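User: Structure tokens for this complex, please. No commentary.
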Amino acid sequence: NAGVTQTPKFQVLKTGQSMTLQCAQDMNHNSMYWYRQDPGMGLRLIYYSASEGTTDKGEVPNGYNVSRLNKREFSLRLESAAPSQTSVYFCASREGALSSYEQYFGPGTRLTVT
Amino acid sequence: AQSVAQPEDQVNVAEGNPLTVKCTYSVSGNPYLFWYVQYPNRGLQFLLKYITGDNLVKGSYGFEAEFNKSQTSFHLKKPSALVSDSALYFCAVRDRGTDKLIFGTGTRLQVFP
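Assistant:
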């Protein structure tokens, strides 16, 4: 039981390049989330998916797209990377039951855009 | 709008002393509150939550948190700090009516030997 996994762990991109961050969970959770973490700003929600087949914008969605490929996988795509997207990206999942509000996080992807 | 505030960027405490990491919240209705810990180069780990019931909530690694409705606070506490408790701590509140969490900006806890 690996929990939430993310690939890659590190990535360096040049401005304008594209890439996809992968996330998978093996806990049979319904909800999945993408956050970015920046110093002094805590975690900010980029996109989330309450269930397979649905996605919704979070606090900072501009410049990103997501795909909920199936119940296990939720990917985040940067179509044209910008230096402002340099950050640490975390994926999280939640069971989805009314009594289970805690989220479980992956180890993160550290992205640098030059 | 729902929000949480962590007024201290950093808390320093000597090993063996009690520690408190502060969190205040602003929500409409009853809050669902959480504490998470982040060790260096790791993802966030769930510590504890308050949904309803006793105001003192016990969690992982000997941590507990006290819900105070009149002061709109949810401070994280531990009776005796360990050097290994040094980490970044986040308070969070459930965004009412959704399954999203709103996080505070984090407090870095430094425990000195």
